[in-house]
Amino acid sequence: MTYMITVTGVEFDLNCPQAEDVRIVDIAHALSHISRWNGHTPGRTPYTVAQHSVLMAQWLAEAGCVKDAQVCGLMHDAHEAYIGDISRPMKRIINSAALRRTMIRLDTVIAEAFNFTWGYSTTIEIYDDGMLEWEEWRIMKHTIPAPDRKPISPDNLFDCVWDYERANKEFMRTFVSLCERGELK
User: Which of 50, 73, 124, 145 could be disulfide-bonded to 167 (CB atoms 3.0-4.6 Å)?
Assistant: First the structure.
């Protein structure tokens, strides 16, 4: 069995995902319940993948990136709604071609479902790395930037760690504002 049941009741087959089975409600719900840093963020409320994704899209907008890049920024971790957030160190340990193929397959199906094209991979990678550095400094509070350098960051966009409900709402609001194409599912 390679399928899972989503919050909306869809039987989602991870081995053979179909665009018609992708629901933005499922993605927003799951990402708003998945903690970044494998749940090791300080405080009572976890910093979620949904908040990370919304901040990424907002940061790209603030930097003057086109709307398509902002969509890619918002959705860059959407596959995690189906496979979870696997930390970078664990991905290096696993080094699995099967995992990589699954992520690519999911990304392709998600883009098809919402009628957008994956692009801006270098930009998304640079901003995602910047987000990771910023999260370590601002959310995890484990590093202090060198005196001559503050990490590039969305710091002016950050007010607090959002609870699950706000993370879900903000993800949906951002998606709707960016994705004016096609019907939402």
Answer: 50
What's 36's domain CATH number?
Answer: 1.10.3210.10
pLDDT tens, position by position, 52-101 = 999 999 999 999 999 999 999 999 999 999 999 988 888 888 878 888 89
Residue 185 lies in a domain: no
Q: Which residues contact 74 (CB under 8 A, 6 or more apart)?
A: 53, 54, 56, 57, 171, 174, 175, 178
**Is-above-0.70 flag for pTM?**
yes
Q: What residues are paired with 48 via a beta bridge?
A: 35
- What letter represents residue 49's amino acid? V
Burial 167-181 (b: 16+ CB within 10 A, else e): bbbbbbebbeebbee
Residue 169 within a domain: yes
- State pLDDT tens for residues 7-62: 999 999 999 999 999 999 999 999 999 999 888 888 889 999 999 999 999 999 99
**Residue 180 in 3-state DSSP?**
coil
Beta strand residue intervals within the chain, DSSP E: 3-5, 11-13
| Three-state DSSP class for residue 48 | strand
